[in-house]
Amino acid sequence: MAIDFSAALPTFVITLREGVEAALVVGIVLAYLKKPIKPAFILGSTLELGWASPPAF
After folding, report:
1. Alpha-carbon 21 to chain mean position
2. pTM check: above 0.70
3. Cβ neighbours of residue 19 closer than 8 Å, sequence gap 6 or more
4. Residues 6-10, mean pLDDT to the nearest whole number
5. 45, exposed or middle or buried, with CB in 10 Å at 0-12, 13-18, 19+?
6. What are the tens digits of pLDDT across the range 11-30?
7. What is the pLDDT of residue 39?
8. Using an 8 Å Cβ cutoff, are 43 and 33 in contact?
9. d(CA 42, CA 23)
10. Cβ contacts of residue 33 below 8 Å, gap of 6+?
11. Alpha carbons 4 and 30: distance in angstroms, whole number
12. Per-residue confidence (pLDDT) for residue 47, from 0 to 100
């Protein structure tokens, strides 16, 4: 009995692309907050990202 993955492949590719895009946005935001002007915001933003990430899965 063979399993046909052709129906699941597009969904997997879209999910993978969205995950990479989200990681890129998070990386850009954290890189911006690492500037010497805003170091106090890094802790708050990482805590918020930690709370926001699990519901996405």
Report:
1. 7
2. no
3. none
4. 85
5. middle
6. 899 999 998 998 898 888 88
7. 60
8. no
9. 16
10. 39, 41, 42, 45
11. 40
12. 61
